[in-house]
Amino acid sequence: MSTTTAAESAKAKPRARRGDRVFAGTARGAGLLIMLALAGVAVFLTIEGIPAVDAPPGKLGGAENLAAFIWPLLFGTLLAALIALLIATPLSLGVALVIAVYAPRSLSKPLGYVIDLLAAVPSVVYGLWGIAFLGPQLVPLYVWLDEHMGWLPFFAGPASTTGKTILTAGVVLAIMALPIITAITREIFAQTPRLQREAALALGATRWEMIQLAVLPYSRSGIVSAVMLGLGRALGETMAVAMVLSASGVVTFNLISNVNPSTIAANIALQFPEATGLGVNALIASGLVLFVITFVVNFTARAIVARSEKRLR
Amino acid sequence: MNVRVPRPTPGTDTEIPVGDPHESAADRRAHLPLTHPQLPRWSPALVAVLAASATGLVALTLGWGLPLWALGAVAVYLVALPLWARSVEGGRAAKDRLVTALVWGAFGVALIPLVSLVWEVLSNGLGVIDREFLTYSMRNIVGEGGGIYHAMIGTLLVTAAAALMSVPVGLMTAIYLVEYGGKSRLARTITFLVDVMTGIPSIVAGLFAYALFVLFFGEGIRFGFGGAVALSLLMIPIVVRSGEEMLRLVPNDLREASYALGVPKWRTIVKVVVPTSLGGIITGVTLAVARVAGETAPLLIIAGSTDSLNRNLFDERMMTLPVFIYYSYTQPGVPPEFGQERAWGAALVLILIVMALNLLARAVGRRYAPKSGR
After folding, report:
1. Tell me: the pLDDT tens digits for B93-129?
2. CB contact under 8 A, A97 and B325
3. Of A92, B59, B110, B307, whose CB neighbour count within 10 A is largest?
4. In chain B, which residues have their Cβ closer than 8 Å to the Cβ of A134?
C-alpha cells in the first residue's frame, strides 16, 4: 500500500460492522416510512373517497353528483384563502422588513419571537376569538360598507348582524397565515448579500432605495414561495373557519352577508361527526381534493425555495 | 433648476455663487453641497403626537370610537411626515420616511390580534378556572359546574402517544439524512417530501387516520390512538426538520475523532453525535408537541368527543382540550353561558400549556445550544 492510498483511507471511513448495517437500515427505513405515509394519505383517501362517485343526492347535501357537491366548497375555500392572502401578504412583508432590516439588531430577535407566538396560538382559540370578539367588532364596518360601497358586488349585503361572514373568516385566516409568510420572507431578506446592502447605503441610497436595489431583487422568488406556503395554510385551515363562518354552501362573491360559501375543510369538520355511510365517503372525497390542491401548492412553493436557495449559495 | 444652498457653517467663509450664467457644469458639480438639510431626530415623534391629538379632537367632537381614531391618526401621520420631509429633505427622503412609517405600521397592525386575543382569553377565562374546573369531568353535568379533567387527560395521552411514534421515526430519518444519505437521490427526495408534508392540512391528517382504521374496525370508528396517528403525521416533519438542522451543527471533528478511536459509525452517532445535539433536538420535539397539542380538526374526526374520562387510548371516544373548546362554545347547551364560560377557561388552559411548552423549548435551546466550533 502506497502512502497516497493510506492518506486517502484516513479520510474517516470507520469499519463497517453488523451493528452498523442494522442501524443504517433502521435509519433508512424510517425515511422510507415517511414516504410511505405520504403515499398512504393519497391511497387511503382515494380508497374511501371513490364510493362517493355514485352516491345519491341525499348523501351529498342535496347536490346531484360529487362534482356539484365539491365545487361550491372549493369556491369558498379559494375565496377565503384569496381574501386572507390579500390581507396577509403586504402585512407580512412589512413585518419581515421590520425584523430583517429596520429593527435594531438587539430588537430583531425578540420581535421575531413575538410574531412566532402568533403561530403558536391553537387554531381553535383563533376561532373562539373570531366568533366572540372579532366578528361583532367588524359589524359596524360591514354596515358601513353595505351603505357606501353596496354598488360593488362584494359588498352587496345585506350586512350580517353577527359578523359571521366570509370576510371575517378571511381576516382570521390572514392572521394565521401571517407568521408563516413572515418567517420565510424574513429569512430570505436576511440572506441577501450584506456587502451589496452596505454598498448601496454607502453610495447614499436611502434605506428604501437600498431595499429596492439590494434586498428585493434577491428575494422575489422567495417571496412568491412564502406567499404560496401561506396559501397552503389558508386553504387547509379548518377550525377557525368552521367556527367563524355561518356557511350555507352557496357560490357568491358577496363578502359581508349572512349567506356564505363554506370551505372544504370547515365543511368536513362540521358534517363529519354526524355523517354516515356514503356521506362519510363524500366528505373524504372532498378531503382528497383539498389534499391534492395543498400538495400541489406546497410542492410548487418548496420547489421555488429550493431553486432560489441553490442560486444564492 | 433646483440647487440647494448649504447653510453657512462656522469657520468657512467661502462664497458659493449660485446660478451664475458663466459657470461651467464642472464648476457646478464641484459646488454641490455635501450635506443635506435634515429633519431633527424627534420629528417623527412630534408628528405622531400632533396627528394623534388633532384627530383626537375631531374624534371627540364627532364621537368616533377608538379604532376609527387610531385609523385617522395613522392616516394623518402618513400624509404629514412625508410632506414635511419633502419640503425640507427632498422627495427621496420623503419616500423613505413614508415606507418606514408603513412598514412599522404593518408591524403594529400584526400585533393587534395577538394582544387582543391574549386579552380576551385572559379576561374571559381567568374567572372560570378553579379547583373544580381542573379536577372534574363533564359526566352527568347539565348547566353550571363540571370541568376539563377528562379533556386534559385525553390531550396528554393522545399527544404523548403521538410523540412516542413521531420522535423515533423523525429522529432516525434526520440521522439518515445527515449521516447516511449525503447527497443521494433518496435523501434529497425525502428532504423535499418532508418539507411538503409540513403543509398537509390537519383535517386531511384526520381523514387519513379515519380512512386507514375504518378498513380494520368498520364504520364510525373513534378512538384516541387514531388521533395519535393523525397527530404524528403532522408532527414527524417538524421533528425531522429540526433534528436535521441540529445534527448538521455537530462539528465533523467530533465524528472523526471518534472514528479514529476505532468506534463504529453507529456507536459514534448514538454516543457522540446525538448527545452533542441533544439540547436542540429536545427543543425541536417540544415545539412539535406544542404545535400538535393545539390541533383540533384531526381529533374531531377520529378521537371524537365524550363527557366522561377515558384513559384507554385503544377503545372508545376520547375528549381532548381543543375539541372540548369547540363543542363547549358551539353547542353550549341551555343556558348557553356556562358552556361558553367553560370554553374560555379551557382556551386559557390550552394557551398556557402551549406557551409553557414554547418557553420551555426556547430555554432548553439556549441552555444546551451546541457549540458550533466558532
Report:
1. 888 889 999 999 999 899 899 899 999 999 999 988 8
2. no
3. A92
4. 113
Question: Which residues of chain A does B344 touch, with a Cβ-Cβ cutoff of 8 Å?
Answer: 128
A118 close contact with B: CB closer than 8 A: yes
Q: Which of A19, A94, A269 sits opposite B203 (nearest CB)?
A: A269
Mean per-residue pLDDT over chain B, rounded:
85
* Mutant choice from A41, A124, A184, A286 vs B, greatest count of B C-beta within 10 A: A124
DSSP A156-192: -SPPPSS--SHHHHHHHHHHHHHHHHHHHHHHHHHHS
Amino acid letter for position A72 = P
pTM: 0.85
ipTM: 0.87
Residues in chain A: 313
Of A120, A269, A276, the CB nearest to B300: A269
Q: For residue B63, is pLDDT > 80?
A: no
For residue A153, give how far its alpha carbon lies from the nearest alpha carbon of chain B (Å): 25
Torsion of CA A100, A103, A109, A112, to 10 degrees: -70
Read off the pLDDT of residues A150-176 as tens digits, 9 standing for 90 and up. 888 788 778 888 888 999 999 999 999
pLDDT value at position B311? 87
A274-284 pLDDT per residue, tens: 888 888 899 99
**pLDDT, position A80:** 93
Tell whether the model's pLDDT for residue A313 goes beyond 60: no
Flag whether pLDDT at B56 surpasses 70: yes
Q: Of A57-66, A84-93, B313-322, where does the model show the most confidence?
A: A84-93
Q: What is the pLDDT of residue A3?
A: 44
Contact B106 A91 (CB under 8 A): yes
Query: What's the mean pLDDT when you consider all of chain A?
Result: 86
Residue with cell 359596524: A140
Segment B32-38 long-range contacts (CB within 8 Å, at least 24 positions apart): B32/B3, B33/B4, B33/B5, B33/B6, B34/B6, B35/B6, B36/B4, B36/B89, B36/B90, B36/B93, B37/B4, B37/B7, B37/B88, B37/B89, B38/B88, B38/B89, B38/B93
